[in-house]
Amino acid sequence: MIKEKKLSRRDLILDAGKVGIGAVGAAGLLNFIPKPAMAKEAQQLPWPYEKLDPEEVGKIAYDGWYKAFCSYGVATGLLTPLQKKIGEPYTLLPIEGLRLGEGGLVGWGTLCGSLLGATVAVGFIAPYDAGKQIMNEMLQWYSDTQLPIYKPANPKATVAVQTTSNSPLCHLSVGKWCQKAGKSLGSPERKDRCARLTADVAMKTAMLLNDWKDGKFKSTLKHPSAIYGITAQHNCNECHPNKIPDVIK
Amino acid sequence: MIKEKKLSRRDLILDAGKVGIGAVGAAGLLNFIPKPAMAKEAQQLPWPYEKLDPEEVGKIAYDGWYKAFCSYGVATGLLTPLQKKIGEPYTLLPIEGLRLGEGGLVGWGTLCGSLLGATVAVGFIAPYDAGKQIMNEMLQWYSDTQLPIYKPANPKATVAVQTTSNSPLCHLSVGKWCQKAGKSLGSPERKDRCARLTADVAMKTAMLLNDWKDGKFKSTLKHPSAIYGITAQHNCNECHPNKIPDVIK
Question: Which residues on B lie below 8 Å from A233 (Cβ)?
Fold first, then answer.
């Protein structure tokens, strides 16, 4: 699957000769440790994609939250089934490396980590233009939807409250839910809320990717930067309650 | 470099036999396309790291912005030199897949894309605890520092103004700069400001990673979620000018 560079048997023997090792047998070549100059190249983007089962994706993502939180949860929900279905290049990606998006980036409450995990997965799966529009739709859906929706088979806590964040920011998404539910950040209910939301984001991303694979993904949604003259969310008045600063156009 | 699963010569012959291909010669095996069940596994984290030259990192990141913007810029600044120095597993990662962080996530102004690129790179390079603290320091530095600092050898526009964002959000970082400079989002000056900031973020990340590699990285900075009882930035009054909502603890 991966394109190989200077790794044919003939080239390996030639390269071995060049660096003074001399001709070696095929068995020796199979134990050859590639040096930078002959390292394999990455498989060109977009990576091959087969439609995912959203229910399977949701379950893996929910369980994934309890292993390494939101960013890892969505990434493992989307990528683990592709590692099993397709193998390389997905198996070459250590998914746990994507966990630092947790808590809106190590607890800073910026972009919801679930969306960071989705962004990286979509970036490898979809061509740039489609991926950009899929993520635009994802952030709008995340902002507008009463979450969480997902009902785990074996919930770890009771989550009775749904909220709409009006924003893709972790701080607003978690904060509004905690206020309405009357639960703290450290409560089992808040944790299960985020685990369920992680499943929701992974499942919605899988559904949009499946639509794209089927040629059914259509989006005319404008990117906020094209509307406001600045990169922005749509909930302007939440941070600018009195007057929105003039935008320089 | 990559751990192999069922890919020894002996195992390949055994596997080929199992699926009815029969014994084949070594030359044939070298052209073998792995199926999911025998796909290579990802190299375990953290990936090997060699200290980077911050100046080289900055130049690649600056030029990278003009190819695919901020998230890609930082990722390519950090990872391209490692592809050259170390080879696999870095060469197996198609860096352009990380470009969707642009404009705070496809123009939504959330987490500055440069920090998203840094997050993914650090997630592969540093062990989890160190990576988490490196990114905590990065977000604090990004918020507190007059940016941009980087001076390109061949600038594409004049950037005379520096600003402090007080936030890791693209919307605030770009917005405050545009207001002070009197330049629009679409201006050459704003674009070069973001290209320079991309270099700054990549260079600072490289310096922290180099310190960590030397055993010199120390950080006692608390994560905001441990201070406020909610995932948050430190600029509370900027969005809550009158009263910060009660935090449920």
Answer: 108-110, 171
Using the structure block, give the residue that is written with the tokens 């910060």.
Answer: B244
Tokens for B208, please give them: 């922290």
Using DSSP's 3-state secondary structure scheme, residue A26 falls into helix
Query: What is d(CA A220, CA A211) in angstroms, rounded to the nearest whole number?
Result: 15
Cβ contacts (< 8 Å) between A209 and chain B: which residues? none
In single-letter form, the type of residue at position B188 comes to P
Cross-chain CB nearest to A92 (options B33, B40, B183): B40
Question: How far, rounded to the nearest angstrom, does the alpha carbon of residue A117 sit from its chain's CA centroid?
Answer: 2
B231 to chain A, any CB pair closer than 8 A? The answer is: yes
pLDDT < 70 regions, chain B: 1-35
The answer for A 72-91 residues in CB contact with B (under 8 A) is 83-89, 91
B164 within 8 A of B177, measured Cβ to Cβ: no
Bridge-partner residues for A147, per DSSP? A163
Backbone angles phi, psi at A10, to 5 degrees: -60, -45
How many angstroms away from the CA of A117 is the closest CA of chain B? 10
Of A213, A97, A139, which is closest to residue B101 (Cα–Cα)?
A: A139
Chain A contact present for B144, CB below 8 A: no
Given the structure tokens 């060469």, which residue do they identify? B91
Tell me which residue of B162, B189, B153, B157 sits closest to B55, measured CA to CA: B153
- Report the pLDDT averaged over residues A4-15: 38
HEC string for B201-239: HHHHHHHHHHHHHCCCCCCCCCCHHHHHCCCCCCCHHHH
Structure tokens at B31: 């052209």
**Selection from B117, B105, B108, B107 nearest residue B71 by Cα:** B117
Give the residue on A whose Cα is nearest the Cα of B81. A36
Using CB atoms, which residue from B45, B135, B178 is nearest to A97?
B45
Q: Quick check: A25 pLDDT over 90?
A: no
Judge: B99–A224 Cβ closer than 8 Å, yes or no.
no
Counting one residue from chain A and one from chain B, the pairs whose CB atoms sit within 8 A come to 264
Instruction: Choose among B172, B154, B151, B150: nearest CA to B163.
Output: B172
- Paired with B163 in beta bridges are B147
* pLDDT, average across residues A55-62: 98
Q: Check if B210 contacts A (Cβ < 8 Å).
A: no
